[in-house]
Model the fold of this input.
Amino acid sequence: MKKLLIAAAVLALAACGEEAPKPVPVTPKAEVVAPAPAPKPEAKAPEAPKPDPNKELASRVKRALEDAKLYGIDPSASSGKVTLFGTTATDAERKRAASVATKVEGVASVDNQIKVVKGS
Done:
């Protein structure tokens, strides 16, 4: 039995003298990265309605007519063309209304539909 123990010890010592096997290089695995969740669209406040350029032009013409003491005339506008509706007492007032409207910024042409009515 002593011989068996001595043989085992010799083998054990012999095994210690050998170089340890080199580790096999480990290749790094590509990490699977989950795509980032798409950003949620931000809730936008409803936009204020854009002002109608035709209404703005008609409003400017109306103010100019009232500043010139020409009342009872209603302008409408479409793409720079202003149409004047209403009545005046004289032809001179009718022509003056068209002249005042022509001088307002943004007015390309004036269609004078004002009627002359005596006593209006």
